[in-house]
Write a structure and sequence with these properties.
It is built from two helices and eight strands. With 141 residues, the chain is of the alpha+beta class. 26% of the residues lie in helices and 43% in strands. The strands form two sheets. The chain has a five-stranded antiparallel sheet, with no helix packed on it. A three-stranded antiparallel sheet has the order 2-3-6, with no helix packed on it.
Amino acid sequence: MKQILCIFGLCTLLTLGFTACQTEDPLTLELQQQEMKKRDSKKHPKLEYVTNVENNNLSSPPKMHYYLEDNNSKLEIRFLLDSKEKVNVSFSDRLGIVVYEEVDMVISQWKMFNINPAEKYPYYFILYSKNFEIKGKVYIE
């Protein structure tokens, strides 16, 4: 009988010891949960566009290069065109409200556009000149 009680007591102590080792600090658990939420909530903006040639003036439309970054609810869009033509640029939100507009600009060097705050995805844009038109949208993936 003493042997059974000793074995039972030893098993109980081992169980308590393993349980004590497995419990984590509540602060550590909270930090881990916050990190998982950040990782899951980090969505990246994507851009899609189509190019049309107006009046068949060009044999091919200019190529457009872009870079997107969403920092602290501020959307930064950088464009570069393989053209020295003056273009008009317009960005509108999902409701059709114009959030940025600029006319007669050359984007043969990188040009940055800021949309702040970037909360109303998707954003639609149009770059157009007398020879071509580029339409597209920026959305969250």
